[in-house]
Design a protein that fits this description.
Two copies of one chain form a homodimer.
Chain A: H1 20-33, H2 58-75, E1 77-79, H3 82-91, E2 94-95, E3 101-103, H4 106-113, E4 120-122, E5 131-133, E6 139-142, E7 148-151, E8 155-158, H5 161-173, H6 192-206, E9 211-212, H7 218-232, H8 236-241, E10 245-250, E11 256-257, H9 259-270, E12 274-278, E13 282-283, H10 291-312, E14 318-321, E15 325-327, E16 334-335, H11 339-355, E17 359-362, H12 372-387, E18 392-397, E19 399-400, E20 405-407, H13 408-425, H14 432-435, H15 437-443, H16 453-456, H17 474-479, H18 485-498, H19 507-522
Parallel strand pairs in A: 1-11, 6-18, 7-20, 9-10, 10-12, 12-14, 13-15, 14-17, 17-18
Antiparallel strand pairs in A: 1-3, 2-3, 4-5, 7-8, 15-16, 19-20
């Protein structure tokens, strides 16, 4: 504790820290299963070169910042874990004896923020799936934590392991889904004490991407870290230098951090793993009924959580999470993908960049089905998170109904939209050949460019070919039965699942993983899930 | 001809130039019908303060610019009207004798661009509907020129006057639809020779907004100008200072301007009315199969048309139009609202700003119905045109199926999305009260903001209340029959039509308008529509 982590902030094969055993395993794996790298996809390692938008002036940004520090100084937070309060006190915070209340001097907060790494790599068991966090990097994580799952045939139902596994397999199928994001749906048919063991094991086996562990108690985090370590086949010292999994820490807004979340920070930050501190500040419910007020509160809660990661270990990798939206004042329903959400996402990016901390936001919508609303709320979310400089995007694919349902069809819709964002961010080719003067000379006024050499040379690759968009003319579309986007998405998710291929996994790693899971189950898993 | 127009570039009541008769009419009108101004809506006079995005570097922008000038110098354009070629020759262009080909020296083009007004006002018959064009102003025009119309009950059908009138009435119902954009659907049940007389008369009577006249031959433009003049109740000298209607001039890409379009420029620019020069450069069909190449061609064609407006009359108001997209290379179908479209829209804005000319672009999609595709393609279009600095947005509401169909339901969907864009562009309230410290002190850690004074004070106005978004929980939504966005839009367009109110019109103006239409019909309208 208290020692400073020095992170590798570039992709690394991890070879430097390997023991001879690991090195042998790795080379054996390569020989037996061929190289692990898929053909490099343009959707890996996305960079967002767009100049970022601002909805707060410099003065307003400073006002939000100062107001949030005033809150931490004068109101403080309720910190529902004695160990955390002790650590905070040791770091210089003011703990009111006999209560949960902790107040933080603004100097203390800023001192803690100073050691947050502005960029780092999250390491996957397959290095081509490593993700760069921070700067202009843009990483999309799958839907997480929905209690329900839906597809057209099966309707909306409670989550189970089969649907969990199907959704995880779909995440593996698309390079634009850079990481999973948690359990895409909660598999309630797996008994709670061992659920995380089965689920994390599935995440390692069914994908080769970075994954998430819930902060539902210390042991939960520890099991997750061990499973990630086994999956990567590396020693713990290397894990501590190379963050390999992440946890979401939600505050209980307003201004409270509960025990499991605080334990999550302690377990993860101490071992150099990634904490994503995300207040859920819903203006009019868990936060003031203004976007500015909700942002102030978001910022106070996020900074408190981030500061705590640095109290646990200076240099621990952490992400600034924003999840500010509002309720519909007439019904109390949460609203997502709205103009207010857009402003909150962009303002959150301004705040995170002010502190030079990577920024997490989300692809949201509140629709109950895959209709125009699902699309426009998500598209507005994508607009804001792209222009706002989101680095790590939770719920990128499959989230619907305000997070209550993971939808198979929405997953495909989102993948298509994410790919469109990636294509939009791809630099325009302005080479002399692309400018096309020679082609225009050849064709001349009144001609056309169908079938010209300049066109034929680009036949395959000129433009993005969407997964879902139906561009047939009305007559052909009518003849095909007038399918909607929903129909296409329903067909495609099933086709894609049929084409799923399990990523290679070193049998030695698989054995070690199975043995760990079996042993932990014998020990009873986690008898009482916090 | 050749004299310089000095435009009023701010809203003006027009009173300065009125004759005593007009002044009397105006005051009589006010007395009889009450003030014309509706309650000022926040959706009028939209300003887009966003820093504009760029997809072209400064060098690339210059390369596109220079390449387009090279095209005009070395390839030239086919100009299919002797009078236009004569005017171009007189201005210094090189006309190849015995052909339609005209080449333009780059110095000549740039000299002509120098007199284009960077901003101007388009004057509606109701001054509160005046629209500011250029700068950071953002004006939304309704769908135009669809051959088909659709609603759920009636299906997709050829346009007729009843549907035309319904769509025009809907445009009047929403302040966010700042102008009509032409005939929202072509009413083929009105005989062609007098169609424009009936339609333009409807536009004046059913709305009080700026409207469009087609460039389908000289007489067409002249009738439109006279109808706009009668509608405003002003003398022609005033019309020439105060642009009051607009025409779209499409090039016949590649590199051709047809006779009616050239006549449109001559008639409109000579009288100080607005020309929107819009090449239809579809990469892979009417333009090279690269977005950069299509942009070069778009720019060449737009600059030639814009330069011609200034050859007709220096200072004539003109708008730089971009409509670059691409075809699906596998089927030849036009694609809209794609990543390529987004880049083209943003690059077009960079070009228009380089010349300091107002920029027209569009809200596009290629869906055959009101599904997720219709929404995401439109939302991506709105993203690009907002970030790209579009000033005058054609087809903002109701356009679907790549422009073939005006959809009643899509109109409502678009209105909702346009209002969301407007709300997004509204500055965030960061007053001390909005920052909410007092509210947070009152509520404290672990509380909630439901029903607090800070919340109750904002109950009505805190957040945008969408027209269509269905935020009910799954159970309530199921009980309601699981309506989609399409269902809601279908209901709402009918409710809105029932609530339509005809805007007041001075009876003297109405009489003059009817008399003009009757006289022109007696004269045979336009016997041969070009």
């Amino acid at each position: 504790m208290g020692d400073v982590i020095k992170l590798e902030n570039r992709q690394s094969s991890g070879a430097a820290g390997e023991t001879p055993v690991e090195r042998r395993r790795r080379s054996g794996r390569a020989a037996e299963h061929g190289p692990r790298a898929p053909a490099i996809s343009k959707y890996l390692n996305l960079v967002n070169p767009t100049a970022k938008s601002a909805v707060l002036s410099e003065d307003a940004l400073e006002a939000v910042h100062q107001a949030s520090l005033t809150i931490l100084e004068e109101i403080g937070m309720d910190i529902i874990l004695p160990e955390a309060r002790d650590r905070m006190k040791a770091a210089g915070a003011e703990v009111t004896p006999g209560t949960d209340r902790v107040r933080f001097d603004r100097g203390l907060i800023m001192e803690m923020l100073a050691s947050v790494p502005p960029r780092f790599t999250m390491h996957a068991r397959n290095p081509v799936r490593n993700v760069e966090i921070g700067g202009d990097n843009l990483v999309f994580a799958q839907v997480a934590s929905a209690p329900f799952v839906a597809d057209r045939e099966g309707g909306r139902r409670a989550g189970n392991r089969e649907d969990f596994r199907k959704l995880v397999k779909l995440a593996q199928c698309y390079d634009i889904v850079h990481t999973t994001g948690g359990y895409p749906v909660e598999p309630v048919d797996i008994p709670a004490p061992a659920r995380h063991l089965d689920c994390l094991s599935d995440l390692v086996k069914l994908t080769d991407k970075v994954f998430h562990v819930y902060s539902h108690g210390r042991q939960h985090n520890r099991d997750g870290i061990e499973i990630a370590r086994i999956g990567r086949g590396i020693p713990m010292e290397q894990m501590e230098r190379e963050p390999s999994l992440f946890t979401i820490v939600n505050t209980s807004s307003p201004l409270r951090l509960d025990a499991p979340m605080l334990q999550g920070i302690i377990e993860m930050s101490a071992r150099g793993q990634v904490v994503v501190v995300t207040p859920f500040t819903l203006a009019g419910a868990t936060a003031p009924a203004t976007i500015a007020g909700a942002l102030v509160q978001q910022n106070a809660e996020a900074l408190a959580g981030i500061a705590f990661t640095q109290m646990v270990r200076r240099g621990a990798p952490v992400i600034y999470g924003g999840f500010t939206s509002n309720i519909d004042m007439k019904t109390g329903a949460p609203a997502f993908g709205t103009p207010e959400y857009m402003k909150a996402v962009i303002a959150g990016g301004q705040l995170a960049r002010k502190y030079d901390i990577p920024y997490r936001t989300s692809n949201t919508n509140a629709s109950n089905t895959l209709d125009a609303q699902a699309a426009y709320e998500s598209a507005f979310s994508l607009w804001a998170l792209t222009q706002g400089g989101g680095n790590f995007i939770m719920h990128s694919a499959g989230w619907t109904e305000g997070g209550l349902t993971a939808s198979f069809e929405k997953f495909i819709l989102d993948v298509d939209m994410l790919q469109m964002v990636a294509e939009y961010l791809t630099p325009l080719d302005v080479s002399a050949d692309a400018l096309g003067l020679a082609a225009m000379r050849d064709v001349g006024p009144g001609g056309h460019f169908f079938g010209t050499p300049h066109t034929l040379a680009r036949y395959e690759t000129a433009f993005y070919s969407p997964i879902l968009s139906d561009w047939r003319n009305f007559e052909a579309w009518t003849e095909a039965g007038r399918p909607t986007t929903y129909d296409h998405a329903n067909r495609i998710f099933k086709e894609k699942l049929n084409a799923y291929e399990k990523p290679p996994l070193d049998p030695a790693v698989e054995d070690e993983l199975d043995a760990f899971v079996a042993r932990r189950k014998e020990e009873g898993g986690i008898p009482t899930q916090l």
